[in-house]
Amino acid sequence: MSGFFEEVRRRKVYRVAAAYVIAAGFIIQISSAVFPAWELPNWAFRLVVVFLLIGFPISLILAWAYDITPQGIRATPAPRTHRRRNLIMLIAMGVIVSAVAGFFLFPRASGRKVEKSIAVLPFQSLSDEKENAYFADGMQDDILTNLSKIGDLKVISRMSVMSYRGDAVRNAREIGKALGVATLLEGSVRRSGNRVRVNVQLINASNDEHIWAEDYDGDLTDVFAIQTDLAQKIASALQAKLSPNEKARIDRRPTQNPDAYLLFVQAHDYANRMEMFHDTSLKAEPLFEQAIKLDPNFALAFAGLSRVESWLYHASDPVPARREKARLNTDEALRLQPDLPEAHLALGFSYYYGDRDYERALAEFEIARRGLPNDAQAYLAIGSIQRRQGKWAESTANLEKAAALDPKNTNILSNLAYSYMAQRNFETADKVADRVIAAAPQSLQAAALKGLVAAEWKGDLSVFEKQFSLVSPETNPGGLMTWARVWVLTLQRKFPEALQVLQKFRGETLTTNTTAPCPKTFLEGSIYMLQGDEAKARTALEHARVVSE
Q1: Which of 86, 67, 169, 60 has the alpha carbon at shortest distance from 121?
Q2: Cα(384)–Cα(401) distance, rounded to whole angstroms?
Q3: Which of helix, strand or coil describes residue 236?
Q4: What is the pLDDT of residue 47?
Q5: Do 279 and 269 touch, CB atoms closer than 8 A?
Q6: Sign of CA dihedral 400, 406, 407, 410
Q7: Alpha-carbon distance 341 to 338, whole Å?
């Protein structure tokens, strides 16, 4: 061996090996940065690595056989002994070094090792019937829900991915960057009668390459088996660990009745809109009830109905009947399925909105969070209660977590901005307001929030005027824009103009920034008070009291 290494030194093979390693490392570094920027396929980078690995032992052989002299390249004089043995040892050494280097380089070059994060984009409906659009949404939503139960994965919540519904051309890199995920799941659904065909592709968001694709063809009753199989294959592809409890939850079918399932899908869509207005929540109520009538053992539908009742009680219709209905439905959901995390989430909202029992609500939300580790609503609810309890650091951490899981949800982002405003961190609140506008440029919440931050921070009302100009005059759900314009005009001491805008609105109550209804005559009475007209103020406020009661 000493003779071999002495010969390697004499032939200056060390120098060539060192120079080759430095040059190869530089080429790999440049390629790994430039190839994605040029959108070259991943196999091109792998090919470069393969050529460099093969070239290393060849370079050693050439360095052994030849030398660079003042007279040019000359064959190196060979020793008299052990020539064949030394050459074999050199080749073996070169191959071993290349193999070891390949072992470390190929995971990086393969492009198949991705982060454990995913967004399930809205599925395309290839069916002619309108109701099958709901079916495609249901397939996507159920796959997303199954994945969200896997604690080892980061899964983006439904509201953020629904903003990509209907996009004909999707840029995987832009979507991955906007949502903060490494992979995307795309799919299409075709339903004809009781036959269903589903096509899905798992995509690497960094380079738009398909990791794998699957086709399923079966009966409507096979839908849940398809969803379960997909969740398990995605978890496997992303190397996510699946606990026995998580696997059991994914395997469980929510209902055996396909008609009840379709009704549930429609109800769930209405109940989970980005801006939870009174009218859309009301549309969800009878659909959940019809699903339950078709399948009295549909625990998930009971939980969904309970959440709708709790929200209506909290936001617009605080009558005892709704609070009682919310509790009865969540109790039934838990009777049917005691470990259903969605039922514990619903019970948490019943305690939170219905009873203001924060401790019991937090206990239920914690159970839901463990069963649905990627559900942004659980973190939002926990953060909202902690905010009411004055636990600002814990509240902000949970709201930020909710925003990370649902980065385009204007309701979550608005809550986060309000929290920063309450802590007088206006600069951060303003940045969050910009995130709301970027997530939903047409959102009324986005328009109002930016102006509200400026008004609270600097007393600048001009931002409101700018944001109002971007909203269509016809856009005024429940009188929300009327309320906002009257509020700004009142702050500007433009009382006659405020009354004029208000009196053009024909309804009796207006939606406010808290979504709770405000009697129109209450605003009128307040403006009359500011004008010093006590008689008109008293008349208007007496009427507002009757409406409020």
Answers
A1: 169
A2: 12
A3: helix
A4: 77
A5: no
A6: negative
A7: 9
Identity of the residue numbered 441: P
Tokens of 83: 């020539």
What residue spans of 372-509 are helical by DSSP H? 376-388, 392-405, 410-422, 426-439, 444-458, 462-469, 480-491, 495-504
Angle between helices 480-491 and 444-458 (to 10 degrees): 20
What is the distance between the alpha carbons of residues 173 and 393, in angstroms, rounded to a whole number? 33
Q: What is the distance between the terminal CA atoms of the chain, rounded to a whole angstrom? A: 99
How would you classify the pairing of strands 72-75 and 66-69?
A: antiparallel
298: alpha, beta or left, given left = phi > 0 and alpha = psi -120 to 50? beta
Please give, one letter per residue, the 3-state secondary structure of 452-490.
Answer: HHHHHHHCCCHHHHHHHHCCCCCCCHHHHHHHHHHHHHH
Half-sphere exposure of 90 (CA within 13 A, CB side): 29
Q: What is the pLDDT of residues 60-87, one digit of tens each?
A: 677 666 666 555 566 666 665 555 655 5
How do the domains of the chain map onto residue ranges? 2-110, 117-253, 472-549
Cα separation, 509 vs 522, in Å, equals 9
Q: Provide Rg for the chain, Cα atoms.
A: 32
Please say whether the structural domain 117-253 has been given the CATH code 3.40.50.10610.
yes
Token output for 265: 């899908």
Tokens of 56: 């290393």
Torsion 327-330-331-332 (CA) sign: positive
The chain-wide mean pLDDT, for the chain, equals 84
- Tell me the β-bridge partners of 125: 189
